Amino acid sequence: MLRVIQNSWALLLGMMLLMIGNGLQGTLMGVRGAIEGFSTFELSLVTSAYFVGFLGGSRLAPEFIRRVGHVRVFAALASFISAALILYPVVTYAWAWILLRVVVGFCFSGVYVTAESWLNNAATNETRGQTLSLYMIVQMMGIVTAQGLLNVADPAGFVLFVIPSVLVSISFAPILLSVVPTPSFESTHTMSLKELYTVSPLGFVGMLLLGGVFSAQFGMSAVYATQIGLSVGEISIFVSAIFVGAMVLQYPIGWLSDRIDRRQVILMVAVAATVASLIAWVFGPNFNILLVCAFLLGGMSNPLYGLLIAYTNDYLDTDQMAAASGGLIFVNGLGAIGGPVITGWAMSQFGPSMFWGLIVFLMLAMALYALYRMGQRPSAYAEDDDYEAVPYAPIGMASTQVVGEAAQDYYVDAAEELSSDEMQGD
Predict the structure, then answer these.
(1) How far is it, in rounded angstroms, from Cα 262 to Cα 411?
(2) Could you give the percent of the chain with pLDDT greater than 70?
(3) What DSSP state is assigned to residue 392?
(4) Would you call 416 helix, strand, or coil by DSSP?
(5) Distances (CA, A) of 369 to 91, 154, 271, 375
(6) Which pLDDT band holds residue 199 (cuts at 50, 70, 90)?
(7) d(C-alpha 349, C-alpha 41), whole Å
(8) Which residues fall within 8 angstroms of residue 210, CB to CB, at 6 or more apart?
(9) 247-285: buried (b, 16+ CB within 10 Å) or exposed (e) per residue?
(10) ∠ Cα 87 104 4 (to 5°)
């Protein structure tokens, strides 16, 4: 682990600054939007717009990098982010925020693709698993730190928009001045959505549903908290609880998934998230209960991202894994686009508590589908008594396909090592 930090500390520091800036503006949109008088549905469109841009950026950024190089893409897109963040309090119209969020989402995605390419290039086969773990921790720490910054100034002013703009600008330095060489960026094989669904129906459907849950956590949680009357300080604690839970419970759940049928773990985690959300739905006004439920929801839902990728890999050959990763992340992005719109509509029609109601529906649907799939196909464990799962790789849901492919490289290396050990044992 120390070796990974020594080789990649500048990249990780730059990525953390980016995550702080992104996490702060994500929560601030919900609070400031309410101050400006935006409706719940308008705020849901603002949230959805970010994921529209993010999905588009993740698809187009690799082509930009191949044409002009990592450094130019990173500098150009990060500059657009800084400018857009300053414009939010200047043009306080819903349509303008929607357009700006598309731009910010697109640019953040491209910046992540660029920086993650450097990070992946700095990792070796021996350190890739540790690098992924550190990157996931950095993501969560960045988002949690951002919630604390929400309390340093009045959301009705300009300061909280200037801070993420400055942080994004400062993040250039450690990344661009890093001694890590510019990596090559190669095209990867793709897998059609039909092929992906055929290989792993649960992975496909689970990722689609999970995208809606994640986008609600990232964007609509602050809108919900504002509407039920929480103070700015309470909102920051509430949103932080979601991501603290994600960081704390990621590894225990991953450890468990390496030892029993991953579908059972997916089912148990989805049920636990459903129960936590149901309790919050019923007892939502109680702040202490909200915090516990937010912690459990984040701790259960975020590991599902890596679980669904790991489960899908159980049914893939090693040469299919990278292609499947891109497809799964794309499906998750589609769910993230639709999730806020549906959640915002439900909240505007039936009240803010439907924030939890929609999450209950999505997580319960995942649990029921996992239960259904368990009866349709034997697990990889049942097909082979000596089956040994490839170790779980922690992946944050804010990652792009670059981290997904890095995780798949880790899975491939681990799978080949297990296969080699089995041959030697024979």
Answers:
(1) 15
(2) 79
(3) P
(4) helix
(5) 44, 44, 11, 10
(6) confident
(7) 9
(8) 301, 304, 305, 308, 332, 335, 362, 366, 397
(9) bebbeebbebbeeebbbbbbbbbbbbbbbbbbbbbeebe
(10) 125
Q: Up-side HSE of residue 207: CA atoms within 13 Å toward CB?
A: 27
In Å, how far are 1, 68, 110 from 115, measured between CA atoms? 20, 15, 9
For residues 332 and 397, the answer to whether their CB atoms sit within 8 Å is yes
The tokens for 384 are: 């082979």
Q: What is the DSSP letter of 158?
A: S
Maximum pairwise Cα distance, the chain = 69
Which residues, 6 or more positions from 114, have their beta carbon under 8 angstroms from its beta carbon? Answer: 61, 65, 70, 73, 74, 77
Residue with tokens 């089995």, as numbered in its chain? 422
177 CB-near residues (< 8 Å, 6+ apart): 10
Say how far apart CA 256 and CA 79 lie, in whole Å: 42
Report how far residue 118's alpha carbon sits from residue 145's, in angstroms, rounded to the nearest whole number: 24
The structure tokens 């505007």 sit at: 348
Output the pLDDT for position 322: 64
Q: What would the two tokens of residue 208 be?
A: 């689609």
Helices and strands: H and E segment counts in the chain: 16, 0
The whole-model pTM stands at: 0.85
- Asked if residue 404 has pLDDT above 70, the reply is no
Q: Is 56 helix (H, G, I), strand (E, B) or coil?
A: helix
pLDDT in tens, 4-59: 666 667 778 888 888 898 889 888 998 999 999 999 999 999 999 999 998 888 77
Tell me the residue type at 376.
Q
Distance of CA 63 to the CA centre of its chain: 22
Contact predicate 309/404, CB 8 Å: yes
Alpha-carbon distances of 32 from 127, 151, 271, rounded to whole Å: 42, 13, 34
Number of neighbours of residue 162 by Cβ within 10 angstroms: 15
The amino acid that residue 185 corresponds to is F
**Number of residues that this document lists for the chain:** 426
Please report how many Cα atoms fall inside a 13 Å half-sphere around the Cα of residue 346, on the Cβ side: 18
Q: Is the pLDDT of residue 178 over 90?
A: no
Residue in the block written with tokens 């350190």: 127
Query: Which residue matches tokens 């439907």?
Result: 354
* Integer Cα distance of 216 and 225 in angstroms: 12
Contact of 403 with 121, CB cutoff 8 Å: no
Measured CA to CA in angstroms, residue 16 lies from 12, 116, 285 at distances of 6, 12, 33
